[in-house]
Amino acid sequence: MNSVLDDNHLLTLPNGERINFGPNVNFVFETNNLKFASPATVSRMGVIYMSEEDVEVSRLVNTWIRKQDQNLMPKITTWIEEYFYSALEWVLHNDQYLLVQTTKVGIVSNVLTHLIGVKTKSEFAISIIRGFGSNFPIEIRNKFANEFFALMDEKVPDSRNPLDCNFNEKHGGFKSYAFDPSEAFLDHETLSYETPPLIQTVGIQRDINFIKKWLDNSEPFIVVGPEGCGKSLLLNFLFTKLKSTQVSIHQISSSTLSR
User: Fold this and answer.
1) How many CA atoms lie within 13 A of 226 on its CB side?
2) What angle do CA 102, 103, 108 make, to 5 degrees?
3) Which residue in 44, 88, 148, 174 could disulfide with 165, CB within 3.0 to 4.6 Å?
């Protein structure tokens, strides 16, 4: 790395191959810290530090609003002014519970994807809870959901499990997830030895609705969980629902080579 950043412009790959860059090539690195960068590396670069205090969330949100359906913009703008920033303040105040450390912009971006196309206040409420709460443990997520539903004066079917429901557009309200053992194995035509069946329990239905919005809008996301909890099974099920899309899966580990 140091040789490609100095006057030599010579990059040596792990396999021994060398690439000599011309003087018209510049490298830009974006990172949240420099704790793994040596003094020799840092001294070869110009560093621009951007503090989170300098990030104006309102500008990011207003830019997003201008890209939405013009018929929905007045409603969305009102709901965001009344509830969005209160929810963001709650999340930032409890950021010690985040499962994956991220930035303020990352938190906001998670939510804005879930808000695409919302038409009612109830749909806005559950989208806010999914977007803001996705990076919290389930107990903190439940606490946030109950407080935010109360703030918006929205009633859910079961206040003990506020996340176990979905917005039903046909009825214009919330409907609890239901597990029917007789319908446990769905999509029989997609079943195979390579693709085991996904039993859609209440928890699986909840997780699908958390992830699906990011997947439908081609947004990046990370699924975190212990080994064997069903991450791959859930993602493979969702991938089968993508139309005109090919999925390439790469198993990456510490011993993965660059070629």
Assistant:
1) 1
2) 105
3) 174
Give CA–CA dist 124/158, Å, rounded: 18
Over the stretch 187-198, which tens digit does the pLDDT of each residue have?
555 555 455 677
**Per residue in 53-75, pLDDT tens?**
777 899 999 999 999 999 999 99
d(CA 111, CA 109): 5
CA atoms within 13 A on the CB side of 62: 4
Q: What are the structural domain ranges in the chain?
A: 1-49, 56-175, 177-242
Which DSSP state fits 93? Answer: H
- CA distances to 59, 111, 154, 251 from 215, rounded to whole Å, are 25, 14, 27, 20
**124/83 Cα distance (integer angstroms):** 10
